[in-house]
Amino acid sequence: MITLIKNVLAVLRKDDRFSVEKCNIVIKDDLIDYIGDAPAYEKYDTVIDGKNRLAIPGLINAHTHSYMTLFRNSADDVPFNEWLFNRILPMEDKLIAGDSYWSTLLGICEMLRSGTTAFLDMYIFPYETARAVNDSGIRAVISRGLVGETADDEGGLRRIGEAKQDFINYKDCAEGRLTFRLAPHAPYTCSPAFLSTVIDTAREMGIGIHTHLSESISEVENIRNQYSMTPIALMEKTGLFTLPTAAAHCVHLDDEDFAILKENGVSVLTNPASNMKLGNGFAPVPRFLKEGINVALGTDSAASNNSLNLFREINNLSLIHKGANSDAVSVSASEAFYAATAGGAKALGINAGELSIGKKADIVLMDMMTPQLNPPTDIVSSLAYSANGSEVRTVIVNGKIVLDGGELKTIDEERIIFETNRIFDRINS
Ligand code: NI
Prior knowledge:
Elements: E1 2-14, E2 17-28, E3 31-36, E4 46-49, E5 53-57, E6 59-64, H1 80-93, H2 99-113, E7 116-123, H3 128-136, E8 139-146, H4 154-170, E9 178-184, H5 192-205, E10 208-213, H6 217-227, H7 231-238, E11 245-249, H8 255-263, E12 267-270, H9 272-277, H10 285-291, E13 295-297, H11 310-325, H12 333-339, H13 342-348, E14 363-367, H14 379-385, E15 392-397, E16 400-404, E17 407-408, H15 413-427
Parallel strand pairs: 1-4, 1-5, 6-7, 7-8, 8-9, 9-10, 10-11, 11-12, 12-13
Antiparallel strand pairs: 1-2, 2-3, 5-14, 14-15, 15-16, 16-17
């Protein structure tokens, strides 16, 4: 299957910089096969006219809990403990088999519509996220959320068993769009003894780690009181960082924490809206960038954001650090867009996130005939400061068109909205 995107303005990555050029892009099966002046083949199965379109790498949502899209706007303007224990968990307890399939698909509809082609998910429902990814055509790294108090914690071992079974059942499905990690939830829900079981299992499975770290001041204080060290130092001591690790939040750090993250090649998954909404503050993203720590961008769940639109998050990332640090050069448009694309790919360990030959063909075509993208003075600036995701017209994942002309091609959006609302009514009746 060979597809040509003809004569399109494209955001390319050259010599570690973004470069905006008119070109032809050829997709062969699931990969970008050619980018240049002249088409590489004589015949194509599909030709897409690039007139008035902007090709960008598909965005990568590096931290979310897609099944929680069901809880959007259900727990707003309340303190964290009220949010979790009195609002979210009682609803979660009422979920039955099949519910999270529909709510995950609702999240996927929103992500595809706003130009996201891959996401790193932390979830608690075996099978259903994998099924939703398989059916929708999106790319994902799914990671089973794990909690446990001891090395042989009964519930913890059951969850690890489910994660292993998911891996066996689904590793070969979805044409290679699906990969796996283990997700020890956080230092305050996983003891060091349980973490060593998780680490051994991940190593045996040959997969990496996805976790939450140093999200709130109270988390850091509690871990310090219990272990006389920061959550990041504690995770290093357990050996967690000997595996490829993507750590969400990393908001409250001391000097030694930066050195640990850097030394161990940990990717930070920053979630500006979620951190602001839950009153947790601003992650030290300018310092991560200065120290060469990889930064990826996530929305967190729709229960704490309340949107999975990564354009909104790029906008947040490029603005909030300027305000918080009184520094107009803090986190540039390029740095924010990089975090939402190539930085995300690095954190997820996937061969995507940039328009380059040999990368997976995860490509978004945006409509340049929208007022907010004109005049086209600085395209990368417009992606960070002006775009809102409504400009997305075509979405290609793994070489296949999954959204075209405003229509999702692989999934029935109307039914997904109907089913999700039906579930919401049932769990709240
Ligand atoms: Ni999270």
